[in-house]
Amino acid sequence: TLERGGTFGEIALLRAIPRTASIVTRTDTRLARLEREPFLGAVTGNSSSADAANNVVIARLGSGRRLAAGV
Question: Is 29 exposed, middle or buried (0-12, 13-18, 19+ CB in 10 A)?
């Protein structure tokens, strides 16, 4: 269950793979859609955010799925 400000879909953007989850809303929901290239530029352009992104991938998919350098 995601709370206000929660995210989903980041793994598909980070790894250029099909989505790893489906989302169903229980209430009216406002969503924001991000394109891959601007998202990657924002996330991987800073070492702290790139590390955080790697931690998300590892936590959700396992340690064998680290974000490739520069991707």
Answer: exposed
